[in-house]
């Protein structure tokens, strides 16, 4: 598939926003969906719908096979060793809550320490905070440097003999910093520390290889990856998923239920209680195929070019201050315009059909550290073009005009 | 949609140079407001005397041009009035932002109404209504001396 014509694969770009073409720069929040994904949901409900994993009738068997096919596609896409290391969840948030909850139950005791970074999204902080309250554990924050990245040594220096878990994002949704997950994991494992990765922003933009990264858990948000909402993935090494207790109880996750005892199902059923987001899982197979048809190397090359272009463009625009200047940066251009609040920027840009996000992007710790109440964020996806970034820059100039700057 | 209606000169001017952006030293009522989606926050300080007259009102916080201008215009307008009058004005303002085409309060002069109506541009921008009303809801809370923070999402 030719990356230059990829916008055509996304029906949303046929829509007019306030009489303008849509310039969608909010993919870090959620990506748009290609036609094949949208059509797959329709097709499944129209012709193939049934619940999975329970009944023996034709439709149930077919739906179960389709559901499991997606698991296999994901295993291939992220190079997991075993298909059963892929657990479907309702989102990356649930995936991270699952890990924090089950690891916490089994392995954390009062006084134990967890390391997260100042870059973390609230979904990779709040679940650990629950454990801080419940088990009296300590959360230590690895600091960012002035470029908005977290170098390995900033993690290394806060590791103590009590550190049990390091939970970090792969790609910051504000500064765009890409963390050295492989090196962090090597360091952590040499000290017997478990590594959890919030891969929400990493998965749509980077080449994923679980066996190479070697992290213990990796959480993925499917709706940021050209897939449906209501679906996330937890990758977990088999040894952990087999060892940890179940997260939610209900149908589908059990082996045998008696009045005096209950045994749980095997992987991955053990972590998939209740009726899952069946249509979304089945449609997500098309998202993977979509990415594979372009090729992740081409995606990365295209997005790196856009990032370089966007950064240079905004750097040239005086009064625009980019947030974070990491050497290894992906997918997001966060910025502030001196004298204009990001919300005003977002409203003015919206008038031109440009969708960005303004606020703290669920990263209050980071914004406090940077001493800014909020920021504006333009984030890119496969469908963006240099023209989109030119329009962004033009609209930023319009903001300055409206505010008499 | 009209950006010029939203960002009128008076809004931009108050947003840039907000009045009463400080802390009343001897305040006797206060409340905090927060818009978790935007990251806007405001802390309103009130000094009510024994006759229930607003001797001083001020605010601290940060936010967009709309929220800063709204807090600035509000504090300017409220100072020197008694509690009942203020409450009537708050109600009138919030009804105007929500549904009424104009302000009805007899406690407001025409030029004061004109100033407040500058904020009516947000009516076309549903996501921005909260920016204009946060400080007003926080002022209500200050009168009630509520300890719980005003939250636009609850």
* CATH 2nd-level architecture of chain B: Alpha-Beta Complex
- The CATH architecture of the largest domain in chain A can be named as 3-Layer(aba) Sandwich
Q: And the CATH topology of the largest domain in chain A? A: Aspartate Aminotransferase, domain 2
* CATH fold node name of chain B: Sufe protein. Chain: A
> Hey, which two chains have the biggest interface?
A-B, 20 and 21 residues
What oligomeric state best describes the polypeptide chains here? Answer: heterodimer
Task: Sketch the major β-sheet of chain B.
Answer: 4 strands, mixed
Number of helices of chain B: 6
Structure notes:
- The complex is a heterodimer of chains A (405) and B (154).
- Chain A is an alpha/beta fold and 405 residues long.
- Chain A has two domains: 3-26 and 295-402, Aspartate Aminotransferase, domain 1, CATH 3.90.1150; 39-292, Aspartate Aminotransferase, domain 2 (3-Layer(aba) Sandwich), CATH 3.40.640.
- Helix content of chain A is 39%, strand content 17%.
- Chain A contains 13 helices and 17 strands.
- In chain A, strands 4-10-9-8-7-5-6 form a seven-stranded mixed β-sheet, with helices on both faces.
- In chain A, helix 6 (181-190) links the parallel strand 7 (163-169) and strand 8.
- The mean pLDDT of chain A is 96.
- Chain B has 154 residues and is α+β, with helices and mostly antiparallel strands.
- Chain B has one domain: Alpha-Beta Complex (Sufe protein. Chain: A), CATH 3.90.1010.
- In chain B, 42% of the residues lie in helices and 18% in strands.
- Chain B has helices at residues 3-6, 9-16, 65-78, 83-98, 110-117, 129-143, and strands at 29-35, 40-48, 54-62, 150-151.
- Chain B has a four-stranded mixed β-sheet, with helices on one face.
- The radius of gyration of chain B is 14 Å and the shape is globular.
- The mean pLDDT of chain B is 91.
- Chains A and B meet through helix 11 of A and helix 3 of B.
